[in-house]
Structures are given as C-alpha cells and as structure tokens.
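Our preliminary data section would be incomplete without showing what the modeling component actually yields. Below, a chain of 127 amino acids is followed by its predicted structure, encoded as tokens that our downstream tools consume directly.
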Amino acid sequence: MINTVAWFEIATDDPQGAEKFYGELFGWSFAADEESAKGGMDYRLISYPGADGPRGGVYGTGGKFPGHGVFSVVVADTAATCARAEGLGGEVVFKLLDNPNGPDFAYIRDASGNLFGVFTPPNAAGA
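Predicted structure:
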C-alpha cells in the first residue's frame, strides 16, 4: 500500500558479519537478490521465521555508502516524494531513478536529520 512502511534495510561494508549477527540473534535467513546482482549491487534479501516473504535486505556497501539501519516507505512516485521532502526541509541524500534492475529509490534525511528510505516498485508509478 502506498505511503506505508514496507521494507527495512541494513547497510554495511561487512554483509557477512551482518548475516551472522542478525541470523544468530533473530533466526533470520539470507539469500542473494539476483536482480540486484545483475546490476553489480551486493544485496541480500532477509526472511524471518513466520514471514510470507522477504521484508528486508542487507546492502553490502563496499565502503562506498555509510552504514545504516533504516525503514523504507513505498510511494507512488519517488522523484515527486523527494521534491516534496526537500520542500518540507528534508534533504535527499541519494536517489536512483529509472532503475533497470529494481525499484526507484532514495534515501532522505527528515528535517530533524533522521535517515529513511522511499521506493516505488517497478510498474507502480502513479499507483
């Protein structure tokens, strides 16, 4: 559903360490995201006991992006949401639009400096 929290992400330059930590702590399992891998991104889908499918991911940053743990909100239009966030005093930290290997997404800092994500699933713009 649009404008709801739909995903969480853990970004780290040590994805194997994150898998070990969260796997042992919570019983989560991990699988490579093949679509992201096609685009050269190390992204691992997180599944947890009782879930009907992955609801999160570990992003292997390779040291090119700060580590973080964030929630992400599904939106109808990532670019428009970024523009609205900036108009409200937020800051777009990173955005990827017209992503051929997955959803359009962005990381935004709210007016208080908190990082969160937004994304538009493929073929869902305007939904």
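The longest helix spans residues 15-26. The helical segments are 15-26, 34-38, 78-87. Preliminary results of this kind motivate Aim 1 of the renewal.
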